[in-house]
Structure to design on (287 residues):
């Protein structure tokens, strides 16, 4: 089992997952630092991710898209890189991009902190996702800041909207 | 594989298809029989039945039998509930971290590149 611990903190609006891998911290880091490796695990099955721009420096931007599904739908994501300390720490903010290509309002911004540390023969990676607000968290889940949930949840919203109309 | 992962997978799979989203849309507007739904699409009754079964497994619709008909229904609350699960977020990350491990396992163990802060755009 890869994931060794999960902490859901509704009060602080964070979700923290700890995973351990039989590899060196440098190798774990590589999976974030190399866009070709990153895209091999970021997208869910059926929704492969392509990282178009990958500037892993503080203030840099990382953009990606995921495409797939029967309709060939495409979903775009953007990260603003906040902290980079190879190979131990990475902080990015995930901006939800509206259909017109501009970032949504600040509420939907989430923050992702990745801490990588040696743990004996293995490497521990602690991933914390923060949400600005409960609304932000709901939005994040609804629009799927992570993964193909973006696809999934926006479809649900579209269906619900039509019904409400 | 946790229950949450299974659920997220089922939900994702169910909604990744245009026809199924359309079926869900119709059923949200009111109960439909499978044959009523089948009449709306240029595909076989069996194919539509299969789509309904996928939606049912994902917990998005329910089916009940009335005479020779299967009636399909759902409600907004059910569908909305599906989008309110924090555990889905967790399931997605678990999946993702598992894939992370798979990719990691395939890396050559020797010849590590030096750690540069910016291994950008290859």
């Amino acid at each position: 089992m890869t994931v060794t611990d999960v902490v859901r903190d509704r009060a602080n609006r964070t979700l923290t997952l700890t995973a351990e891998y039989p590899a060196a911290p440098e190798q774990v880091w590589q999976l974030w630092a190399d866009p070709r490796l990153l895209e091999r695990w970021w997208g869910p099955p059926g929704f492969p991710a392509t990282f178009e721009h990958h500037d892993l420096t503080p203030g840099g931007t990382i953009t990606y898209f995921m495409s797939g599904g029967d309709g060939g739908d495409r979903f775009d994501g953007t990260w603003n890189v906040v902290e980079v300390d190879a190979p131990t720490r990475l902080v990015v903010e995930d901006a939800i991009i509206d259909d017109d290509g501009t970032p949504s309002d600040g509420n939907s911004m989430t923050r992702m902190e990745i801490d990588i540390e040696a743990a004996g023969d293995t490497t521990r990676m602690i991933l914390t996702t923060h949400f600005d607000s409960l609304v932000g968290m709901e939005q994040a889940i609804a629009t799927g800041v992570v993964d193909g949930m973006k696809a999934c949840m926006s479809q649900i919203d579209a269906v619900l909207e039509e019904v409400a109309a | 594989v946790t229950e949450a992962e299974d659920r997220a997978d089922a939900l994702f799979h169910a909604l990744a298809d245009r026809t199924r989203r359309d079926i869900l849309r119709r059923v949200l507007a009111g109960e439909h029989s499978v044959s009523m739904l089948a009449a709306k699409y240029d595909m076989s009754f069996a194919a539509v039945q299969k789509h309904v079964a996928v939606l049912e497994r994902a917990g998005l619709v329910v089916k009940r039998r009335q005479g020779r008909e299967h009636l399909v229904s759902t409600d907004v609350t059910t569908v909305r509930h599906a989008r309110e699960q924090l555990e889905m977020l967790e399931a997605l990350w678990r999946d993702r971290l598992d894939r992370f491990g798979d990719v990691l396992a395939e890396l050559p163990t020797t010849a590590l590149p030096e750690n540069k802060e910016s291994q950008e755009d290859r």
Q: What stands out?
A: The beta strands of chain A are 3-9, 14-21, 49-54, 61-68, 73-85, 89-96, 110-119, 122-131. Residues 72 and 92 of chain A are 28 Å apart (CA to CA). The mean pLDDT of chain A is 74.
